């Protein structure tokens, strides 16, 4: 159960309206790495967590905080849209000064949401639960969370550079700081889990069913050997269970694919016709292949 506190977690009031920036701010609200995504990701990870104790509690702590961030950004977007009625869009076509301010405004902010935030990204695409990950494996999920916080902090920092409004920057600086904490938090939790579960997910899979001769082989499938100098190409593996092997020219280990003809009701091209096409093309130009 959640209780709503009327005060925001942190101030979210711009110095002046800016409908164009409101459109940009939608990305960290309803984008793939926005606050709605991490909010739902953490909450479902917590609700689905079958291990009571500190991990479940921690996940729900941060998930609840992300709800506060959604509210902050939605409030900021609404106030950035103050004084920007739909009629100003018509003026923008005639007044270059107004166009500079409102020309890039998201028209749906006026037409659909009544000068309010939307659960969309900056391009207008609606938020989707497909952005979220809640697998039931805490180590896998925490790594996904670290990625989400890394991408989210990157986007907030970029948005910080796109405005000179000191009040907007103040709110963004708070979010950047919390993303710093959250990245450190997930890294700490990952390190702790790796001490008991190992570094490879899942740790419960029987290694005898794994093709172990290629478990630690780095295969170079591009021109040059620059990748040879990386940590991943030599020395002990990160899980401590082997040593990296660098393979410059990896050989094919599979068969040449040969598919059975499709049944007649699929109405594909019969194999005999494909061979005729190949023969005809080879006669025209032997270098041409299907």
Automatic annotation (TrEMBL):
Superkingdom of the organism of origin: Bacteria
InterPro entries to which the protein is assigned, alphabetical: Ferritin-like, Ferritin-like_SF, Mn_catalase, Mn_catalase_C, Mn_catalase_dom
Keywords, ordered alphabetically: Calcium, Manganese, Metal-binding
Cofactor needs: Mn(2+); Ca(2+)
Residue sites binding Mn(2+) 2 per the record: 66
Keyword check for Calcium: yes
Cited Gene3D superfamilies: 1.20.1260.10, manganese catalase, domain 2, chain A
Protein name, entry field: Mn-containing catalase
Species: Halobacillus alkaliphilus
């Amino acid at each position: 159960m959640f209780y709503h506190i009327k005060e925001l977690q942190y101030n979210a009031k711009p110095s002046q309206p800016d409908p164009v920036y409101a459109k940009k701010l939608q990305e960290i609200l309803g984008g793939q790495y926005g606050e709605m995504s991490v909010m739902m990701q953490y909450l479902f990870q917590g609700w689905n967590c079958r291990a009571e104790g500190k991990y479940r509690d921690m996940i729900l702590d941060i998930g609840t905080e992300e709800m506060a961030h959604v509210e902050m950004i939605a409030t900021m977007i609404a106030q950035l849209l103050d004084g920007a009625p739909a009629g100003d869009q018509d003026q923008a076509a005639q007044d270059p000064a107004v166009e500079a301010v409102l020309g890039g405004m998201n028209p749906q902010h006026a037409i659909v949401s009544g000068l309010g935030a939307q659960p969309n990204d900056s391009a207008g695409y609606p938020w989707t639960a497909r952005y979220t990950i809640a697998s039931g494996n805490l180590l896998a999920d925490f790594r996904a969370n670290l990625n989400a916080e890394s991408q989210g902090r990157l986007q907030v920092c970029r948005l910080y550079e796109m405005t000179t409004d000191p009040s907007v920057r103040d709110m963004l600086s708070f979010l950047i700081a919390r993303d710093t904490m959250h990245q450190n938090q997930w890294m700490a939790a990952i390190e702790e889990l790796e001490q008991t579960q190992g570094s490879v997910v899942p740790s419960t899979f029987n290694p005898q069913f794994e093709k172990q001769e290629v478990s630690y082989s780095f295969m170079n499938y591009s021109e040059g050997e620059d990748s040879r100098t990386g940590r991943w190409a030599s020395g002990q593996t990160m899980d401590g269970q082997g040593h990296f092997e660098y393979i410059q020219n990896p050989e094919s280990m599979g068969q040449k694919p040969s598919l059975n003809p499709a049944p007649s009701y699929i109405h594909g091209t019969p194999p005999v016709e494909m061979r005729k096409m190949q023969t005809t093309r080879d006669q025209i130009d032997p270098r041409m292949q299907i």
